[in-house]
Design goal:
The protein is mainly α. The protein is built from 11 helices and 2 strands; from the N terminus they run ββααααααααααα.
């Protein structure tokens, strides 16, 4: 009686290879990378610098800051870059996700602002066009244009500036512009891929 070997002869003179059990085990699957789906620290750094620059400029008015670091351009570029990455998925789902993050804070801010302005004397009759007043309130729900605000309020019996509402609402232009970019991104990305030169030079023609 002989010890079994790796090569044995089977019936019909067919060579059969006996593979040891250790070698038949499949290698363990590679662990997924911990960085996949994580945040891009470089983009986060640029966003943080842009926010700090905005705060510094509006508080101190250093005129060289926009030349040293154009924060608005950087923030729109970052938003466009992230939107382009996301559009690998279905566009409607991406837009819905962006609106879900953008609109609820806007509604909360709008509810506070409208309440405070009404308490300070603003209302449908203050502008002489009640129907227009109510109609423009839709821009607080979906800011496709600048949300309405009161000009020349009493300032809560002169305890604050009479332009307080204007100072708080006018900076919302950024959200309005961002919303339009989000809604038009699928079309703009398609145009860029199909007509890159024309798409890049279109803003200059306007």
């Amino acid at each position: 009686m002989t010890a079994p070997t790796d090569l044995t002869w089977a019936q019909g003179d067919t060579l059969r290879l006996r593979v040891p059990a250790v070698l038949r085990q499949e290698p363990p699957a590679a662990a997924p990378s911990g960085r996949k789906g994580g945040r891009d620290r470089y983009l986060d750094l640029l966003r943080a610098l842009a926010l700090v620059r905005v705060v510094l400029y509006h508080n101190f008015g250093w005129f060289l800051l926009p030349l040293v670091f154009p924060s608005m351009g950087v923030m729109f570029a970052l938003a466009g870059s992230l939107m382009t990455r996301s559009l690998d998925r279905p566009a409607l789902g991406v837009i819905r996700g962006r609106l879900r993050r953008l609109l609820p804070p806007m509604w909360l801010f709008g509810g506070i602002m409208i309440t405070l302005q009404i308490l300070d004397g603003w209302g449908p009759q203050s502008e002489g066009h009640p129907s227009w007043w109510w109609g423009k309130m839709a821009f607080w729900l979906l800011p496709l244009s600048t949300p309405p605000y009161a000009e020349g309020l009493a300032g809560f019996h002169h305890h604050v500036e009479h332009t307080w509402a204007e100072q708080l609402v006018v900076p919302l232009w950024y959200l309005r512009a961002y919303l339009w970019y989000v809604l038009l991104s699928p079309l703009m990305l398609r145009a860029l891929r199909r007509f890159p030169v024309v798409t890049l030079f279109t803003p200059w023609r306007w």
